[in-house]
């Protein structure tokens, strides 16, 4: 890595919320705006990090952020699955307001539309250079299934405010298994054109279902048995790719190297980076240098690999003299899942580890394990005293909050569900968000307040998702839980009908856009 550092351009800190001003303090009329890095893990649970109580894994780099920042114990993703969480985060609009934001195929058309105002647009309007690295899972191109992967995509992240992007179209378990750099397949191999289908296989191409002998790296436990890439079965069918195909063991290295390169190139500018790791999503196949480093096997090693990626970013910031004035927010897109389709012995090797901590449920669920996730905020210039905060915060608010920090104006009608809670994120305001909305995989919604949680009834008869052994929390009856008692174990709805009605009213008004937290 290159050494040396020129200071970031000093600009006026205008239009900052009162709460942020209280945190920043009276230090003159001008303040240097921070660089902003959003580190977004994949399927990382509330109990998966050492600083959140994990005893079977050592995460020193994440610990560093927590020990010199603010660690939130009531931080929420907007949904319990990937695509809707990411949509909500980047647009400030609840994904459930639309019917096309479910878990996306690898060949999905763009879910965030070019005319929507995004977090990247907001930072660009404030003079930042912007980048997205890693997992995308929000679609590319105009229409689902119509992309020409052998040519520049007519609609990609450059249309959403990102100056630079190096991304996976969806997830590592879905084709196409290539990186997309600035709207084109990275390292494109013209001798091996790429074809993708989620409808049927290509003639002569092996699949995990029909050719299990070719699954030399990981075998599937359920699903994930269509096209084979790098000795691992995937969801969907793919032909070609050649030298452009990724190797799963190198994904973290590749994403991290491109992130470091971006920071180094733009060290003299203000930058925003959306760093969305593949870890700890399946297929878990970390680099060989992490193998044998954790008794939980591949899933534990993937957590260590995630921590290594965080450490590489921190080391780069340190070397360039950027750490003091870089705001880092670390979180996850949803709660954890153990067996999510591959025979990686993740469940067998937990050895007492609880990925969701003491929370009930996990990925896909209506319970807290689905959406309550790690949230750590680190900004040495402004957060001088480390804190553990119980304040209720939601990722849906991060667009409006960061806009207030950098003095960006959000266009009327954009980010309709996002509110400025920057004071919460910087420890200057200890008032809770009055309520957060949680969104399960089957579109069931919940309302969490400081002391209560209401889960709306639904007609999904499943209580357990058998393939992943996840408790879903579905019921045809209203559910109310006393959140002063850990674990959502006793439904007290019949005992507190007035409280049920109160929270039902909040949910109804949120749906109808007739309530505000301002």
In short:
The protein is about 20% helix and about 15% strand.
Q: Give the overall average pLDDT.
A: 94
The ordered H/E elements are: HEHEHHEEEEEEEEHEHEHEEHHEEEEEEH
Structural class: alpha/beta
Number of strands: 20
CATH architecture descriptor of the domain at 18-188 and 247-373 and 400-425: 3-Layer(aba) Sandwich
Task: Provide the CATH top-level class of the domain at 18-188 and 247-373 and 400-425.
Answer: Alpha Beta
What separation lies between the terminal Cα atoms?
A: 45 Å
List keywords for this structure.
single chain, 518 residues, alpha/beta, Alkaline Phosphatase, subunit A, ten-stranded mixed β-sheet, four-stranded antiparallel β-sheet
Q: Could you explain the architecture of this structure?
A:
α5 packs parallel to α6. It contains 10 helices and 20 strands. The strands form 5 sheets. Strands 6-5-4-3-11-1-12-13-2-14 form a 10-stranded mixed β-sheet, sandwiched between helices. Strands 15-16-17-20 form a 4-stranded antiparallel β-sheet, covered by helices on one side. Strands 7-10 form a two-stranded antiparallel sheet. The N terminus is likely disordered. The longest helix is centred in the middle third of the chain and has 23 residues. It has a domain of 324 residues: Alkaline Phosphatase, subunit A. By secondary structure, it is an alpha/beta fold. It is globular. The chain is 20% helix and 17% strand.
